[in-house]
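New here. Invent one.

***
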Amino acid sequence: MKVGIIGSGVIGLCSAWYLAQKGHQIVVFEKGDGSDGCSFGNMGYLSPSHFIPLASPGIVTQGLKFMLNPVSPFYIKPRLDADLMKWAYHFWRSSTSTKVAENAPALNDLLHFSRTKTIEMASELGNNFDLTLKGCYMMYRKSETEKHEIHMAGHAKKLGIETEILDGEELRRREPELGVTSLGAVFYPIDAHLHPGKWVHSLRKALTDRGVEFKFNTQITDFETAGRSIRSLKDQNGVQNPVDQLVVAAGSWLPEVVQKMGHKMLLQPGKGYSTTFTNLAHNLSRPAILVDDRVALTPFGADLRVGGTMELSGINHNIYIPRVQAIINAVRKNFTSFDFVLPPKEQLWCGLRPVSPDGLPYLGKSQKYDNVTLAGGHAMLGVSMAAGTGSVVSDLVENGKTMLKIDKFRVDRY
């Protein structure tokens, strides 16, 4: 079959990977030039530890408090936007203990499945994207945060996820050169990380070598339909691109694309920032999340990427310098040996994560067209869930079903 894929981010690339393995002819359509995207500058986490959706108890109250702080890690820009209002309403409804208990197992299953698939992919590609299986620290400085993280570790144990509770002394023993000031950490040995930019390049090269065609700077403007099927994709130049099956993995632009085929999806772009400090004399041995500050750190050899924030301000790539400064300040506060200063603006990065109201991805068949599969809304877990999502997409394209339970990810749930 000829399969068209809209979007060349990690979800689109992993979908292409598994579909190409099954012998299908693949064409990937990308509106940009392929030089950047949400995954290039992100933290590269594979995080089974992140089994709690973004929409969780307390997040709404916290978000309202953060809105008064211009450098807060979670920020919703107030504006008159009907889609944002509807999204916020469903986000609020999803932020309950009951909803989280219902949704966490499905998220947990996809995260574990995806971790396994990513390890398999690394073996096939020669691990030229630095997949490292060394776990992740969830570090905290406040006693109330410690109680919360230990409580979450209990939930993790119920899902079969191993954890270790580390006090400050043990943490400093494991990271002796960094001047760790944290009270302690919960360590998740199952977590892993990779270099996201290298992964994207590795996948593109492997797919190109296998005959996958990439059409960059190509925006799909319309669809030619026949009954319950989409038969052709019209680009901005008026060129028709016939397909047998279509996968839409357009990231934060997913609602815009599917609206052209009569679908309505609730999704907001959540901006995140990062910068990378290079050639450090001493570095973290493994990734760490500074829970109190909502800041993430990922070591890549002698380099350290630091990032954070979830800024819902619409589709834009404006970099708000005070937020980046707040990230750097948080790192300095937690590690006295990291005396970082704000880099030049050209060394700062931001990307848009597609966020659904309940924090779960959209993954499944279109309810309107039998030959369309939708995949998006992975929020901060795009890299974590990409390989698993791609495998599921290939099953749905071929068979219309998959062995993994994806009912919670229904594309028509709003």
